Amino acid sequence: MTAPQDLAQSAIYRHPSDSLFGRVLPRLLHAVQWTWLRRALSRRWPMPALLSDVRDVVYVSWWVDVRHAPPPPPSHHYVVHEGRTPYTILSYRHGHFGPALAGPLRALMPSPRQSNWRWYLRRDDDPEGTPVVLFDRNVMDQLTCVAGARAFSDAMQPHLSARFAHVLDADGAGHTLIESGQGSAPALHLRWQAAAGWSVAGWSAAFGGDAALLRFLTCQDEAIARTCDHRWASTRIALPVAVDTLQPLCLSGELQCPRLQAMGVALESGLAFRLPRVLFRVVSERLL
C-alpha cells in the first residue's frame, strides 16, 4: 500500500519544461518574502470576490481506501463508508474568471481549463453538515492563471499542464486528457459517453439515496488546501448546483490516472456525470 502523501510536498510547483524559464519560475512562485508580504496585506485588504461562468463540468468519483488519504486538517475528519472514502476529479472550462467588481469588463478575463482533484471532509462540530472539500491536486492550462493564482492565493495552488484537453461532443461523449511533461501536474486520461440512466450501485446506500449522493458530491461551500509551507488555507465558495440538471455518463475506452491507480483504484468503476453550467463564486480566503 502506498503511504499517504504530504499535501505540502505535492503543492510544490515544477514547470512542464526544463528550460531556463522553467527552472527560474518555481523560485519566484515559492519566494518566502512575497508570501509573507501578501499574507500581511491580505489581513488588511481581503481578496476580492471572484466569478466564473463555468461550463461542461465532468465529475468522476471513486471509492478509495481511507488509509491512502493524507492527514486531515485539524477539527475535520474524512467521510468514510466501509473503510473507504470518496475521491473526485472534476474538469471544466471557466467562463471569464475574474473579479466580480469588474462587471461587464469581466468579459475580457481568461477562460482556462481546470481540473480539481479532491477528498471530502466533515467538520468535527457539524458531522451532518455540508461536506468540505480537501484539495489534493489542481491543474490549469494557462500559465498566467497558474502564476496569478499561486502569487495571490494560499488555497488555490494549481499546477500547469503540458497539454490539457477537455472535449465534449454533441452526442454527450468526450474525454479529458492532462499531460504532465516534466512538471508537477498529475497525468490523466478519461473517456466517457452519455448514459441512458443513473447507475449508482454501491453509492446511494452510503448517502441515503440518489439525490443526497449527488448533493454530497457537488454542493460545497468551503475548500481547504495545504500550502507549501505547511499551513492550512480555507476558501469560502458559492456553487449553486441544481441537482436535477446533472446528466449521467459512463466511462469507456482506455482510462489512465497513475495517481489513483497507485492507490489500487479500478478506474472503470468511477461514477461519472456532467453539469452543463454553473455560476461559480469565490467569496473569501483565510489561513486556518
Molecular structure report:
This protein is of the alpha+beta class and 288 residues long. It has one domain (7-287): Acetoacetate decarboxylase-like. The chain is built from 7 helices and 14 strands. It has helices spanning 7-10, 20-29, 32-44, 143-152, 204-207, 210-218, 258-261; strands spanning 50-65, 76-78, 84-93, 98-99, 113-123, 132-140, 159-160, 163-168, 174-179, 188-194, 222-226, 232-238, 247-251, 271-287. A 7-stranded mixed β-barrel has the order 1-3-5-6-11-12-14. Helix 4 (143-152) links the parallel strand 6 (132-140) and strand 7. It starts with 6 loop residues before the first helix and ends with a strand.
What's the topology here?
Elements lengths: L6 H4 L9 H10 L2 H13 L5 E16 L10 E3 L5 E10 L4 E2 L13 E11 L8 E9 L2 H10 L6 E2 L2 E6 L5 E6 L8 E7 L9 H4 L2 H9 L3 E5 L5 E7 L8 E5 L6 H4 L9 E17 L1
Parallel strand pairs: 6-7, 6-11
Antiparallel strand pairs: 1-3, 1-4, 1-14, 2-5, 3-5, 5-6, 8-9, 9-10, 10-13, 11-12, 12-14, 13-14
